Every structure is written in C-alpha cells, then in structure tokens.
Amino acid sequence: MEPRLGKTTSIPTLMAFALPALAITALVAFHAFRKNDDALVLYCSHDAENAERIINLFEKKTGIRVVAKFDTEATKSLALVELIRRERSNPRCDVFWNNEALGVMELAEEGIFQPYASPNAGRIPAEFKDPENRWTGLAARLRVVIVNTEKMPPTEKAVEKAMENNLGRMAIAKPLYGTTLTHFTLLAKQIGLDNLKKKFRGMRERKLNVLNGNAAVKNAVAAGGCDFGWTDTDDFLVAKRSGAPVAMLPVKLPDGKTIAIPNTVAIVKGAKHLDEAKAFVDFLLSEECETMLANSPSGQIPLGPVDESKIPPFVREIECQVENAAELAPDLPPIRNRCVEWLRNRHTR
Question: pTM (2 decimals)?
C-alpha cells in the first residue's frame, strides 16, 4: 500500500491557465512534497487495518501527522527490511514497525537503527528487546496449527499422525517471508539447516501445499480445502470469528518451546523527524497500545503488564504460552540469512 498522503491545496485557477502543463505538474509534485515534509514517515508490516487505528489515535493525541507505508501479505516484513537497507544512505523512513523480530535484529546489527531507550520500554521483558536499545518488542502472536474440526480431531496426536502421511491435506505459507521464515529459522537453529532442507524436501514430496501467506492457509483450512496447517493466532482468530469449524494448537519446536513472535519497533538512524519518532515509539510501547492490539481482530498478546480485565478471554488463555517461548538470540539473523539464500535458490512454488 502506498503512503497515506494528506490533501493538497489546489493551485489557483489563474496560475493553472498561465503555466504550461509540465510546469503545473512540477509545482503540484513540489507542493505535495512540502505538504508532507513535516510528517513522521512510518514503514509498517503490521496489518494495515489494525495499525491505522493506533496511527489515527496517535495523530489525535499528539497532533503529529503520520505518513505510513504498509507491506503486502505475501512478502510481509522482508520487503520493507530490504527497502530500509536500500535507503540507508538517504533514509525516508523514520520509524519501522515490524510484525516480526529477525529482520529488525539484522538491520540493528548493520547499524541502521538509532538507539533509543523509551521510558515505556521498561515494561517489556528483557528477552523481547535489544540490550543496546536499538529495537523493542511488543504485542506478540503465536505460531499455531489450525485444524478443521470437521476433518480431524484437534489434538497433538492427530496432527503428529497426519504429518507422517501424505501431506496433500496440509498447508503452510511460503517460508521465504514473514512469520513462516521465523518458524523455519528457529527450526534450522534447533535441528540444523541441512536437516531442515531434508525435512522440507520430504514434506514437498508428500504433496505439502505451499500458499501465498498465512491468510491463505487460514482460508484453505477454514473452507475444508485442507485439514490443517501452520499459521498465526491472528489469522486463526479471523477464521474462528467467521464461524468456521476450526481449533488451534500451539506449534512446538523440537525442544518443546513455543514460537512467540513479537511486533518490533525501531528508529532509523538519520531520521528526519527524530523527536516525533521517539514520541511514536513511546506511544506504541504503552500499556494503552498493547491493550488496543489485544482487543483488535488480531488478538495480539501483551508482553508488558496490562489490566487483565481489559484483555479478551482468548488472549488471556494463551498468554502463558509466551513464558515458554523460544529465545530471540543474537545468532538467529545469520541463520535466517542462510535460510533465505537456500529458499530463494530452491524456490518454494
């Protein structure tokens, strides 16, 4: 999605008649640029519908205007990470609100972020933030197995048995992007990349369905086209609220830990609106925003303390899973890069 641009003042009619068409075009472009030059530029891979509510509230409370550039479902997180890297010498982005952590961790190691110790970062547990204050996590999702209860029992035993057979009834998102890439990275760390390659090759040979995003996985299972698949809690909730016959089980890694994937926020070094960027980070890391995200359709899990009476029952039920989450260790970004190189060469269509 392109940046949300504010309205521009029209060029006076007399000037429009007096200037050649090329000059008019240049003047309109210059005016539009000046109109948004004082706006905070946010790159965001969180779902636009949910992010817009927080952006609008921030604008209302602070008077700071925000121009937001969102990512797509199919390439979520990776495309904006690469864009920020390409723009490093002349950054356009002030704040990066990512829907996962590994891309942000990688950019931090490349020196692309401005360290900032937000007052509200103190409410976030240490395992979900950078010790050098280059990024901070918030509002997590769990990786889950979504099961169509009309097709199979929603039990670990049933899923384990199904995964031993033909996988034409299982779906995952392309692992080159988003939370499925994080999932694969954690698997590669625990079982080794060579073993992951072998495992994935075997799954493909057994007719595994690889789709264009977690939402596509959710849709396939909800409609009965597949019996089960890997997705995230936010997509599961969409299916559940629509009345689909679905249940979920947390995905467990070989060491028994679950996969909790936080949102992350960071300020780009060289940000043209540094004070406004700090204000946005403070707001996003607040209890108010984590509570909003918990109550949004995506049902994000707060990482900091919140008033539990204001959190939906579903979110309260799965909060305990975060305490057993795999660690966001510094060695994960290099493993992620090796996974990306393999998957790009291998291709996953």
Answer: 0.81
